[in-house]
């Protein structure tokens, strides 16, 4: 087995960490969590998964989240999983147009709390997933609010997707939260003190595993790289593949999370920034592949 270097992975995951949140969290947690999760995904006997995504800016799904969700879905489908996506109809519409593999689509509309809870229970009892993944999904605070990074209440544009992770039917499931800002599903496992130092109103919804990076999509890419090492099949994208998928999402309505505009950026970052992240990830992947062989 290849030897994983935690400092190299920490450096990778905190690349271009403008807000400092990923760096702060990874100072207090194991950067090899992404490796452990990849191994668990490959070894699990589960065969069905629901990937939940969609963070909404002025009512439009942002590019961070759906991009990583589609690539994760393709990888898991290729490994024999039955993949379904859950989100608001607006987000599922663009995923349908950009995912080139068979998948299920679970529309989770805006509903009041109790109705959302009943709907989440119904989904889980019907789908019977073995795994839940959340990537860049706004989750409630301790006060029950849904807040963006500016602390603004976005409940009117945010379906209560976190109810899927709070349902009794989700207890015991293999669940993964992927995020970058502390206000997403999964950060309930992080000490509120750590997040408050970063000026975050933290989400209190927990998952069994939490993967953090400067950009949520990048955490998904890192997970895909380690799944690739474990399986011998490459699933993480190169820069051209990423940009093609990003353009498809934007052409179908996704927006940059920082500006709210339909431009090919993720959290305000231009293509060359993600290209450098992928180049760094490629280097780690190539080194570990050589050691594995």
- Name the overall outline: globular
CATH architecture: Alpha-Beta Complex
The overall average pLDDT, rounded, is 94
What is the succession of H and E elements?
HHHEEEHEHEHEHEHEHHH
Unreliable runs = none
Rg from alpha-carbon coordinates: 17 Å
Structure description:
This protein is 42% helix and 13% strand. Helix 3 packs across helix 9, helix 4 packs parallel to helix 9 (216-231) and helix 5 packs across helix 10 (239-251). The chain has a single domain (6-292), classed as inorganic pyrophosphatase (n-terminal core). The mean pLDDT is 94. The chain is globular. The protein has helices at residues 6-13, 21-26, 33-43, 66-78, 89-98, 113-127, 163-166, 192-196, 216-231, 239-251, 271-292, and strands at residues 48-54, 56-57, 60-61, 82-87, 104-107, 131-137, 174-179, 209-212. It has 293 residues and is of the alpha/beta class. The N and C termini lie close together (9 Å). It has a 6-stranded parallel β-sheet with strand order 5-4-1-6-7-8. It has a two-stranded antiparallel sheet with strand order 2-3.
């Amino acid at each position: 087995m290849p030897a994983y270097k935690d400092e190299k992975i920490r450096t990778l995951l905190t690349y271009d960490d403008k807000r400092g949140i990923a760096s702060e969290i990874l100072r207090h947690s194991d950067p090899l969590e992404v490796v452990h999760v990849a191994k668990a995904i490959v070894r699990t006997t589960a065969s069905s998964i629901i990937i939940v995504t969609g963070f909404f800016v002025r009512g439009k799904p942002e590019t961070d989240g759906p991009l990583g969700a589609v690539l994760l879905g393709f990888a898991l489908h290729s490994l024999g999983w039955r993949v379904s996506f859950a989100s608001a109809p607006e987000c599922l519409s663009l995923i349908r147009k950009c995912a080139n593999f068979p998948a299920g689509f679970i529309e989770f509309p805006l509903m009041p709390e109790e109705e959302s809870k009943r709907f989440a229970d119904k989904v889980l009892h019907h789908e019977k997933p073995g795994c839940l993944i959340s990537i860049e999904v706004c989750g409630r605070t301790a006060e029950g609010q849904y807040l963006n990074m500016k602390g603004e209440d976005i409940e009117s544009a945010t379906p209560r997707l976190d109810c899927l992770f709070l349902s009794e039917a989700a207890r015991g499931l293999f669940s993964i939260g992927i995020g970058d800002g502390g206000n997403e599903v999964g950060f309930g496992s992080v000490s509120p003190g750590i997040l408050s130092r970063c000026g975050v109103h933290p989400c209190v919804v927990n998952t069994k595993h939490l993967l953090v990076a400067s950009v949520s999509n990048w955490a998904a890419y890192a997970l895909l790289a380690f799944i690739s090492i474990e399986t011998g099949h490459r699933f993480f994208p190169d820069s051209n593949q990423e940009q093609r998928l990003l353009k498809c999402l934007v052409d179908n309505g996704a927006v940059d999370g920082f500006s709210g505009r339909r431009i090919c950026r993720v959290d305000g970052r231009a293509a060359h920034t993600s290209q450098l992240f992928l180049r760094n990830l490629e280097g780690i992947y190539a080194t570990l592949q050589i050691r594995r062989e």
